[in-house]
Amino acid sequence: MKKGSFIFIFVCSLVLGACTTKKKNTKKSNTPDTAETYLGQKPPGLTAEIFAPGIISINGRYEHGISFSPDLKEVYYSANKKDEDPSIYFSKLENKKWTNPKIANFTKGLKVAEMHPFVNPTGDKIFFTAHNEFTLPEHKESSKIWSVNREGNSWSNPKQLDSPINNGFGFYSNQTTNGDLYYFNVSKWKTYYAPNKDGKYPEVHEVAIGGVHAFISPTQDYIVINSRNREDAQRKSDIYVYFKEKDGSWSKAINLGSEVNSNFSETCPSITPDGKYLFFSRYNEEGGLSNFYWASTDIISKLKKAYFNKEH
Known about the structure:
Elements: H1 3-6, E1 49-50, E2 62-68, E3 74-80, E4 87-94, E5 97-98, E6 102-103, E7 113-119, E8 125-131, E9 144-151, E10 154-155, E11 159-160, E12 170-175, E13 181-185, E14 190-194, E15 205-206, E16 212-216, E17 222-227, E18 238-243, E19 254-255, E20 266-271, E21 277-285, E22 289-296, H2 298-309
């Protein structure tokens, strides 16, 4: 993959008891059974494991940027072979089985490349980045954030966001429950957020953190990013977390440690809608290609507890 493309590079069960009756609760949840979520993969612990090998994590290509729908019945992610333009793939849980991944082609040919999808918290919109071919000199300038709206079992025609968000080379957008949009501006090498104003984003504000591919947690109390290792210059990219302080500012960057990070590069972190899992890409495949890895967010909870229990 060319240098400019490297940076492109989410169920609780209710237990209802009854002491005096044997009647069963027939109320159904909108969330699939545990065995059906996350493509039926066994949940990881604190140590990161490859996600869905041979299904989503496929040898011979880069995989970067993954998002699940709030009900965990759909997954969207971007992937591409070396020196090819990225595409967004998707799979859905239908009749208790996950469909074979297919290319979404949201822009219907308006843009050659699509990547970094994010399904919003209500599940009715997907934000993503689209741009021209890598081989064209203006592909960076053409990289903008777009969106599509859910229309039944399909998606609407795409729209490029009419917002200062797209002033410059913007990508890796993700949204909070109140609709604020976070994203990274490559042109300025900074993370920004745009407050939601009735579904529009007329202004943007810098987020005082470092790193790339910032992702706000569903609870909005921490942000995960990837950045060059602060202590070891030989490690090109590790996953870090920033915790929100009581005054609304952000803590120092805290490395997620060896359970997540390795001697290979880790990028594009994200948190699942249920807040249970951290996903990211690890470039450990032969030829420097990447696969998706996931780990329990308990590792972040432990770091948070330790951080706020000590004086700082």
